[in-house]
Amino acid sequence: MNPKIKNQSTDLLFKAVLSLQSVEECYRFFDDLCTVPELKAMAQRYSVAKMLYEGEIYNDIVKDTGASTATISRVNRSLNYGSEGYLLTFERLGDELSEEQ
What we know:
Layout: H1 8-19, H2 23-33, H3 36-53, H4 58-65, H5 69-81, H6 85-93, H7 95-99
């Protein structure tokens, strides 16, 4: 866990996210919480992470997601040296991730 973000406000936010029970509820919550560009940036980073995890190359990721190579590098660094949060979700979503293709 990153001690730089650990505090009471972040705990409250994460508990709120954990209380959501459907994709529709997530849409409603994140629409209220984030600006459209913030939400699109997070979704793009998650797509980039999934593609890197699946072994895609940078050029294909740029083409498919529109992400910059700097964003792809940052996500790749998180995949390799981060807190394994991406990997946790990939493992838990398993077959659902494959169906998204």
